[in-house]
Amino acid sequence: MRSEALDITIETRDRAIWLLLSGPFHAEQAPGMKEKIAGLIEDGNRKIVIDMESITDIDESVPQMFLSLLNLVRGKGGDIHFIFRNETVTKAFSPLRSLFSIYPDAQSLPTGGLFSGLRRRSRVLTRKTGIRLSRPIAIALVVTLSGWILTLVFIIHLQNQRIRQQELEIRTVSEWKRSAMVELKTLRDRLRQLEQLGIVKVVPPPQKPSP
């Protein structure tokens, strides 16, 4: 059993629970840490920040332990944010880095709202593609996408109006055609009656001479 102790400081900041860890983080210390954080989650804490910048050594099983806690808190509508950029912790978290919300310092933590969502999306893109979106670019993208969506909605609205107008014109022509057919039939019946009474004589149209 190794004697080095993992120092833990727990604080409350802006409705979030902060755990500041320093020293070596060995495998045998993971169960106690997991139990402590799980207890915080069960007590109703949904935003947890873990500062690991001062960790001097870390076992490869620690990220797996944090992953199980992350699934637990996210299942309750919360999240765990990690702060570190030292090489030791970065190397240990590297295989699972895309699954965690990792920030280089406290100033980079999200504060909520639209810009927070854009910042988190920027971090995901950074981890997966190496591309970081700055705030002005993210805003420009949102504005551009909104413009495209509004334009598409407007075009669909105009198309619907045109279709309704064409349907109305077709119904009008169909009704006129039915009315004309009824009137034509009535005239034919009357003409047939007059012909039977000998009042009029229907003369067939002249035929064209054959060539």
The tally of domains stands at 2
The SS-based structural class is: alpha/beta
DSSP strand content? 15-25%
Q: How many E-type strands?
A: 5
Ends distance: 120 Å
Report the biggest beta sheet as strand number plus sense, adding barrel if it closes: 5 strands, mixed
* Rg calc: 39 Å
Oligomer: single chain
- Shape, please? rod-shaped
Range of helix content? 40-55%
**Total count of helical runs of at least 4 residues:** 5
CATH C-level of the largest domain: Alpha Beta
- According to CATH, the fold-level topology of the largest domain is Transcription Regulator spoIIAA
H and E string: EEHEHEHEHH
Identify the CATH architecture of the largest domain: 2-Layer Sandwich
Spatial sequence of strands, sheet with the most strands: 1-2-3-4-5
Protein architecture, described:
With 211 residues, the protein is α/β, with parallel strands linked by helices. The protein folds into two domains: 7-109, Transcription Regulator spoIIAA (2-Layer Sandwich), CATH 3.30.750; 147-195. It has five helices and five strands, in the order E-E-H-E-H-E-H-E-H-H. Helix 1 runs parallel beside helix 2. It is rod-shaped, with a radius of gyration of 39 Å.
